[in-house]
Structure formats: C-alpha cells, structure tokens
Amino acid sequence: MASSTDQNALRAFDLNVVDYLLKPLNYPRFCKAIDKAIRYYPRKGTDKNADNELFIKKGNSLIKLKLKDIVYVEALENYVTLNTNDQRFTIHFTLKGVENQLPAEVFVRIHRSFVVNMSMIHAIHEDSLDLKFGSSIKNLPVGKSFRDLLMKKINLFSR
Hints:
Elements: H1 4-14, H2 27-40, E1 53-58, E2 61-66, E3 72-76, E4 79-83, E5 88-91, H3 95-101, E6 107-111, E7 114-117, E8 121-124, E9 128-133, E10 136-141, H4 144-153
C-alpha cells in the first residue's frame, strides 16, 4: 500500500519536477533545492528590451538610453559619464556600480577609469585602444592589469 507522500512523489516525477521537498522543511535542504532549480532553469528576462536599455536622469526628466549606444563609460571622481556617439550623460554613481549593471558580454573594463563597448573598438595598441566615436576616433588608455581580460574577451585572429 502506497502512502499519499509516495503518490505525490511519483506524480511529481511525472511532471518533471527538479526536486521534491518533504515536511517539515529543513532550511539547508530547501536551499539545495533552490540552487538545483536555478541551475536547471537559467533565468530568462521576461522583457528582452528591459535588459537592453536603461533610464538616465537628465534635469527633471528620465531619458531612455539603449545599452548598444553607449560607446564608453568614464569615471570622474564621484561621478560617471556615459558617452554615446552624440551625447554625454553624467550620473552620481561609481564606475564599479555601472560596470556591474552592464552586460559583461558587451562591455569590458580597460582601465581604472574606463569601461568600453567592445563592438566600438576600432584598434588595440600596446597601451591604448581606439574607439569609433561618431565620425571620429577616440584614443583611451589600457591599464596593464586590465589588458589580459581585454585580450581574452575579444575575438583574436593572428597569423
């Protein structure tokens, strides 16, 4: 004779559950089940556009800025500037805080004061790089401690 718990467990497996918890719940076991569910079902954005844009306060307004339009981010003491081809937005934030909000597959830190959009890189030199900035080229320094990460993240083809 099967108990209701056994019946529920069999039904759960029929429904392709990731884990099955029994009462009374034990916190470490609950955390293990949550970790397993997170690994099994990677987080997907509910709104694809939400991850591709942000709002910047400018005066009394909020301006929508597409992440792909950001060419580079520069730290200026207690402020950060987000630079696009034709605009510059200054916000009271840290570079590390902004860097953590930007998608790592698109942006890379190249210096203690700069994060750049990798798709805007025009050329990489020994200790600097050139960004395609509107119709001109902007040269930015590459810090020694950031160079290896930059080289890992770009698609490098050599002869």
